[in-house]
Amino acid sequence: MQGYIIDVKNVRDDDLIVTILEENNLFTAYRFYGARHSTINVGYKIDFELESNLKSSIPRLKDVIQLGFEWILDREKLYCWQRYIKLFYPHLKEVEELESFYFQSLDDTVHKMIKQNPKRAIIESYIQLLEHEGRLHKEYECLLCEQKIHNKISLVRSFLPTHAKCSYSKTFEFNQIKELFDEASLLKFEDEEVEYLWNILLQGL
Ligand SMILES: [Zn+2]
Q1: Which of 60, 108, 152, 198 is spaced 20 to 30 Å from 3 by Cα?
Q2: Known NCBIfam families for this protein (predicted)?
Q3: In angstroms, what is the span from residue 120 Cα to ligand 1's centroid?
Q4: What count of Cα atoms within 13 Å lies in the side-chain half-sphere of residue 189?
C-alpha cells in the first residue's frame, strides 16, 4: 500500500504511532523503534505493509519504503508541505472510509510543487478541497452580517467571505477572490497577499 504520513506521535522510548492517509483509508499503526528509521516523518509518502497483532488493537507498520519527491531536499518546500499535511489529521481523524479525492489531491500538489511556489500550489489545492467538500462559499454572503458582498471582500478561517468592514481584516477586490474561487488560481495575487492567505489556511482546513 502507499500513503502519506499525516501524524506521528512518540510513545514509550523510540516507538511511534503513525497515521497514514491511503487512497481509501486512514490507517493508524504502531512502529517499533521508529526514531531509528529516517523513513518516518510527517509529510513523507511511503510504501508500507500492516501486520495485525492479537496483543494490540492497532496494527504494526512494517516494510516501510520512502517514496521520494523531487523537492524533498528543498527545506522551504518540505516545511510548507509538512505544515499543510499536518492539518489533515484533525480534519479527517474521525473519518473511517476516505474518498480517494484526498490522496489524489496530495499527489497533485506534490507534482505542482516541483515547479510552483509551495504556498501558491498548496492554497490552490486547498481551494479545490473546499469546493469538493461543498465549503467554498460562492454566494458571497458575509459570514458576520449575512448580507451580500459586492466589492471589498475579506476572508476569514476556511476562506469564508466577509465584508472588509465587518471583520476588520485585509481587503481584497471582489473580482480577485471570485477568480480564486472559480478557477483555483492565484495569478492575480501578490506574494504578500499569498502570505496572508497562507496564514489563514494554517488556522485549519
Ligand atoms: Zn458583513
Answers
A1: 198
A2: PRK13908.1
A3: 27
A4: 26
Cα(163) to centroid(ligand 1), Å: 4
Which of 3.30.720.10, 2.60.40.10, 3.60.15.10, 2.40.50.140 is the CATH number of 2-67?
A: 2.40.50.140
Stretch 140-148: mean pLDDT, rounded? 97
Task: Name residues whose C-beta falls within 8 Å of residue 95's C-beta, 6 or more positions apart in sequence.
Answer: 26
Q: How far is the CA of 139 from the centre of ligand 1 (A)?
A: 13
- Cα(148) to centroid(ligand 1), Å: 8
* Distance between Cα 181 and ligand 1 center (Å): 19
Q: Where are the domains of the chain?
A: 2-67, 75-201
